[in-house]
Amino acid sequence: MKVANKGIIRKLTMRIIGANKWRNFFIVAAITLTAFMITFMFSVGASLYETVQKTPFLMQGDYSHAYLSGQSEENMEAIRSLGYVRYGTYTYRAGTGYLAGFEDGLEMITVNEDSWRHHHIPVFTDIIGSVAKDTSEIMLSRAHLKQMGIEQPFVGMEIPMAFDVGEYAAGTISEHHSETFILAAIYTESVRLRPGNPFTPIFVSESFAERYGHMNIKNMEVRVIFTNQSRAVEYARRLAQDMNLDDDSEVNVHVSLSHQADTGSSTIYAAIAILIASFMTVGFMLIYNVMNISITRDVRFYGLLKTIGTTPRQLRRIVNGQVLLMYTVGLFIGLAAAVLTTLVIIPSLTLVKGPAGAVISFSPLIYLGGAVFTLIAVYLGAWTAARKAARISPVEAAEYTGDQKINKKPRFSVNGKPALMAWRNLFRERKRALIVLLSLFIGSTVFITFMSIANSMDTEGLVADSFDHDICIAPEWGDSGLIDFDRDFIEEITNLTGVREVRELTFGLTAFMDYPQEMAEADIETLGHPPEVVFITGIGSDYFAEINKTMKDPADLAAFERGEIVLVDEAKSLSSLGSSLYDHFPVGTKLYLEVGDESHIPVNTQIDGYHNIRIPFGIITSSRCLRLIMSNTFLESIAAVSGINFLCVNVEEGMYEQVYAAMSDLVDVDILTMFEARRKVEENRMTLLVLGVSISSVLALVGLFNFISLISVGLMARKREFAALESMGMGKGQMRLMLRWEGMIYWIVTIAASVTAGTAIAYGLFRLVANQSPIEFPQFNYPLAPVAIFFCFIVLICTVTPEICYRNMSKRPLAERLRETESIPGVSRLRVHM
Amino acid sequence: MIFWPDKKLLQQLDKMIDEAIAGTFHTETYDESLLSKIESKMLKFLEQSRLRQEQIEGERGHVRSLIGDISHQTKTPLANMALYTQLLAEQGLTDEQAKLADQIAISTDKLNFLIQALVKTSRLESGVIKIEPKPGDVQVLIAAAVADCESLAAAKGITIHVHHTSLLTAMYDERWCTEALFNILENAVKYTENGCVIVTTTEYEMFVGIDVTDTGRGICEDDLPKVFKRFWRAEESADKPGVGIGLFLACEIITACGGYLKVSSRLGKGSTISVFLTKV
Amino acid sequence: MSVLKTSNLKKHYHTGAVVKAVDGIDFEVESGEFVSIVGSSGSGKSTLLHLLGGLDRPTDGTVEINGNLIYAMKDEELTIFRRRNIGFVFQSYNLIPVLSVEENILLPIQLDGNKPDMVFVDRIIETLGIADKRLSMPNQLSGGQQQRVAIARALASKPMIILADEPTGNLDSKSGMDVIGLLKVSGEKFGQTIVLITHNTEIAQMADRTVRIEDGRIVGGASK
Question: What is the mean pLDDT of chain B?
């Protein structure tokens, strides 16, 4: 039980804080920057995580882990009560709706409060209105409305729509109706790059389904969200077992969840962790140094307090109290800044953005993490200072004159040379000097790393490498697959001015194959069904000829055209099958395929080589599948394809804009161009650059703060020493030279270390990133210019600071400076020793 | 049974002791609780202390009345001694006899002086005499004391120089401080053979200092702290009249006025006794 | 029982050669006494004062304050003991610069969590003539006034003993006289035991008893 002296301790804490304004500024600034950076990094990480988690669902417009066919109410209860099931909801297929402006019908699906909240709200944005309840209410997306030609939709407007119902109930005939519906809600779904059905279903109310007899188990689809997304496959299997489901109603896991985890982002997570650690370290270093110096300066204050009876514990509370207060202020500002930056920057951060945009995470864990990690760094620094204050001996405090204590004998004589004197001066405050150098080093290294990575991103070669062609015209999806371009269209494109060549491809062709036993078994284990599909991209002979030039063993064109040989689409197959690709399908493997969804045309062929065909489209599927490149000629000959549905165009030098403009007039489909791809990569690079420069600047800034505070205080402490030197005849010029040398040593050591060790670290990290990253880095391009500028800045600060401090100091007359002890306001008198 | 210290209980105890210090303590509870027991004991203890205090007061009272009695009772015998000694001296004595009579007279004087001084001191110490310092002009004080000393000084051929200053007000009791200053002046005169005694006044922020400097034989360093002690006389002064109580009395008086005395000296050159009074 | 008692007190420094700052001192102070310790520069008087006040640990010997062996206590205990029982007046830097005069005076009392007896504190402030400076900050006071505040603070917590280290060392002679005079007068008025360290014999003589110190030993005066 303690006596009630909290009040006086608090008063002392507040008062001493008020007397240390410069120090407070440095520390609050450091804490703010540290808190801001750590929180921001956490934000980026968390947003990245959520984006990665959510993207596949964004692309579907439906957030569910698994699907089941209809279940009874009992079963639903049972499902919901399972420990690993977070939500289980159900919807009904309610028919097909035909909206104006749409060629084909859209599925109608029911929603209720539950399903809307759990499955759709997470993946839709800008939702206005409410869930459809009434029979006549429907919910549409802005994409729907745009397609319908409605410019300014509003909730409550009338939407006339024809629809078919009764399709799914056995024994009923489909009925066609036409009614006027009320728009209950409008939402925006994410950008969808997946070719195929680009529209979300029409959401109707359950009462609508009931009215038309669709509210039955046959039309029901159950959706499940598990407690842990990463264990979805496992849970799905358990669900099937627990519910004793028979084969008819197996549990289907969502597309993306059966894929391997995304490894590309782990580099980013690692980078974030390293940066957080760096900030914690540098922040801690600054606080450690500045607080220690502060305690030393105020040693008489603490010593006096101890003399008149302030216990070590109370002294610690005074120090910790000061730092805590500064922490609160700095944290508040830092977190606020982080929130602002998150809102502004993350959406445009292409590193974080997925194909469907970036999901900003506002999880309170981020801010808690920011607060806690900053607190760790701050508290460590404060704790050392507090301990120091608590240990002050009153005698030592009473005799304090403000001069530095020199404990050890110097190891070498200086001969009055300013440079050597400077060197020895540095050794006096070894620990502090080391800390400053370390913090400067960290800042420099981070800077070099970022700049190297950004600089080595070869955007030109990158983009040129990433796609084989300048412009690609993607196919359209129709009822029975992709629509072919008609000949005239292809002619027109080919004849546009500036077009160099047009490559014709067929895309999206499926074939069936018996996969090797091993693979089949593995897939049954993990996915529940064996692989059986092969995707085929057909290319023309001219394209093949070009590919051939790059192959080690050129293949025989004739054989290709006869279908005797095929190439494996390496990159996509690899990502789908993993390394088993090489095990099971090496060059020379004979394959037996049945080509065509319905036609099942038998084909015998052999793998002749691997090639990474780089076109900006692919088919996403949950199954593992091999992807092959076959000859258009051959495919046409066996009637597997009817025509060309994918065009790749190469453009003459500088004719790019023209061709693009001309093409846009002709065709209304997605045109993905290298131009845009290049722009995207450039964006990436710029973002990385800006981010990198800002982050490392902040780090370096904190390091420089450390330097400035150390130097200015160190000089103050040596006031009398300088005065003594001056009185002995050391000229002002020599003094400044010595000080300049001190600053010089700091930047020489920093730059030397950064150039050697720093560059080595940067290179190491660069290698790591390059290996992991899907983007290619041709070579390590050292960013000479930026690094040089950065170093110049360091040199500047290191040179200017001692100068300014010295100038301030030497304004007073020499005699006064000789006598003056470490000033306490109002008491600067002659100190007479014992 | 062991109980954790009860915070409330400790606070109550703290309050009790505060009250005891301030003298406002009273018991509140009368029950079986430990607190009540402690309260009662505290009360007993305070009562005992009070009784002891009263006892001491009582004893002091006895001493005072004893002093009063001594003073009263010795007056007559002493007066008689002086009278008869004088009568004896007037009887026509031989030189030898006259010397002897002289000795008796001197001793009687001393005795008288001693008893008076002792009584004064005792009264002062036991608080019988109330010294009431009031603001007053320091010059007035000096003048009064010097006046009392004039004859003594003149008899020895020593001048007392007073350096005048502007108006300085200090807290002093007119009657008693005059006596104190007189004692000091007397002392200075007594130990100065030839030369003068100088009285100067110095103004400080909180005090007014009156310095009485003589050109006597001085006091050696080791003796300085003893100067104001009761009955102290330097060895060298054994031949001079005096009991060694004048300065002591002066010290007591000045201290009671919220001031103090200080002495400095140079052997062979002289001494300065400084009187410090609280400035107003 | 004496308020302060040392027994064979020693403080030796071992920095290259052995420096015997205090070399076997037996010293006693009775309650209410005003004792001065005189010595020239380097005589060990400051070290002695530090040892008496529990500010520095002795190499050998004991210091007893009111029967308590202070060097048998741990740092935390000793600090609290000091707070409650010892008052200090130093040559310079006596006041906490960020607290006002009144706050400085009340500091030891408040550190102990006690409510100050303002009547008593007012008397002290009056006696020391700093009543009009109650709310001023230390840097607004002259050296002499600062010392008086220091004395007030030392008196306010009614310690068993006040230790004064060369309190007039940084002051001109007039201010010095004021300070010493007030120390003496208030010591007398409030019945306070005072030990004063000085190199100035004149000032030393203002005490009831003087002790001479040289080369870490008592060489003159009455040590009891």
Answer: 84
pLDDT at A829: 30
Q: Are A586 and A577 in contact (CB under 8 A)?
A: no
Cα separation, A156 vs A135, whole angstroms: 14
Q: Which two tokens stand for residue A184?
A: 């209950």
Any idea how long chain C is? 224
Q: Which residue has the tokens 């909206």?
A: A99
pLDDT (0 to 100) of residue A587: 86
Q: Does B10 touch chain A (CB under 8 A)?
A: yes
Write the burial class of residue A490 (CB in 10 Å: 0-12 exposed, 13-18 middle, 19+ buried).
middle
Would you place residue B142 in the very low, low, confident or very high pLDDT band (cuts 50, 70, 90)? Answer: very high
d(CA A736, CA A742): 10
**Mutant choice from A2, A298, A307, A822 vs C, greatest count of C C-beta within 10 A:** A307
- What is the ipTM score, two decimals? 0.89
Conformation bin of residue A154: beta by default, left when phi > 0, alpha when psi is -120 to 50: beta
Place of tokens 């540098």: A282
- For chain B, which chains pass the contact test of at least 3 CB pairs under 8 Å? A, C
Looking at chain B, how many residues does it have? Answer: 280
Q: Which two tokens stand for residue A155?
A: 């909730």
Q: How confident is the model over A275-332, as pLDDT tens digits?
A: 888 888 888 888 888 888 888 888 888 989 998 888 899 999 999 999 999 999 999 9
**A411 burial level (CB within 10 Å; 0-12, 13-18, 19+):** exposed
Q: Are strands A646-651 and B159-162 parallel, antiparallel or unpaired?
A: unpaired
Question: What are the C-alpha distances in Å from A744 to residues A739, A799, B91?
Answer: 8, 7, 110
Scanning the structure block, which residue is given the tokens 């100088």?
Answer: B198
The structural domains of chain B, with segments of one domain joined by +, span: 1-129, 134-278
CATH number for the domain harbouring residue C114: 3.40.50.300
DSSP state letters, A191-212: P---SS--SPPEEE-HHHHHHT
Which residue of chain A has the CA closest to B10? A1
> What does the DSSP assignment read for C94-132?
-S-TTS-HHHHHHHHHHHTTPPP-HHHHHHHHHHTT-GG
| Contact present, A450 and A688 (Cβ < 8 Å) | yes
Instruction: Give the span between the Cα atoms of C120 and C68, in whole angstroms.
Output: 27
C-alpha distances out from residue A154 to A99, A132, A182, A220, Å: 17, 15, 10, 30
Pair A303, A394: CB distance under 8 Å? yes
Cα–Cα distances in angstroms (integers) from residue C29 to residues C32, C37, C163, in the given order: 9, 11, 12
Contact criterion met (CB below 8 Å) for B111 and B78 = yes
Distance CA A225, CA A230 (A): 11
Total domains in the fold of chain C? 1
Fold annotation for B1-129: Helix Hairpins (1.10.287)
State which fold the B134-278 domain adopts: Heat Shock Protein 90 (3.30.565)
Joined together, the tokens standing for residue A545 give: 């000829």
State how far the Cα of A659 lies from the Cα of A671, in Å rounded to an integer: 12
Residue whose token pair is 């390091």:
A703
Q: What's the average model confidence in pLDDT over A408-422?
A: 65
- For the full predicted model, state whether its pTM sits above 0.80: no
Which residue of C lies nearest to A825 if distances are taken between CA atoms? C139
Identify the pLDDT of residue C103.
Answer: 93
Q: Report the range out of A142-156, A517-531, C139-153 with the highest average pLDDT.
A: C139-153
Strand, coil or helix: B86? helix
Q: What angle do CA A766, A770, A772 make, to 5 degrees?
A: 120
Domain that holds residue C80: 4-221
To probe the interface with C, which of B17, B224, B262, B263 has the most C CB atoms within 10 Å?
A: B262
* Mean pLDDT (whole number) for A581-585: 83
Asked if C131 has any chain B CB less than 8 Å from its own CB, the reply is: no
Q: Which amino acid is at B43?
A: L
Q: Are B191 and B269 in contact (CB under 8 A)?
A: no
